[in-house]
Design goal:
This protein is mostly helical. Helix content is about 75%, strand content about 0%.
Length: about 120
């Protein structure tokens, strides 16, 4: 799953992040990475251990639960990320990052309806 905070740190020089902004984004990024690991590792282990014949609905539910947990964090974090950035910084961001900072897009991503490359789940 995309980590918008890490992506912002990658373009930090381009958008002239302050030290405080960079520190806050780094903290949020670490939390997000831990959440992604804690949500997807059990799901991946479950899927890897499935026999040739398995209950598709249970497998789907595991994937959906992981996706919802991960994107829910982004939905909570994004308003804080947007608040810490200036209008000038937001103005120079590429469309991919801006899309990831859009709550409506994240809601669609969480529900699996975004049509993006990341909404590949069942």
């Amino acid at each position: 799953f995309p980590n918008v905070m890490a992506r912002l740190l990658q373009v930090g020089e381009q958008i002239h992040l302050t030290r405080m902004q960079a520190d806050s984004l780094a903290t949020m990024s670490r939390r997000y990475t831990r959440l992604v690991d804690s949500a997807w590792t059990p799901a991946a282990k479950y899927l890897a251990a499935l026999p040739k014949e398995y209950d598709r609905s249970e497998a789907q539910q595991r994937m959906v639960s992981a996706r919802v947990a991960v994107v829910s964090y982004l939905i909570e974090a994004v308003p804080n990320v947007r608040k810490m950035l200036t209008k000038g910084q937001l103005k120079v961001l590429d469309s991919y990052i801006l899309q990831m900072l859009e709550p409506r897009y994240l809601e669609l991503l969480r529900s699996g309806q975004s049509g993006s490359e990341f909404a590949f789940f069942f």
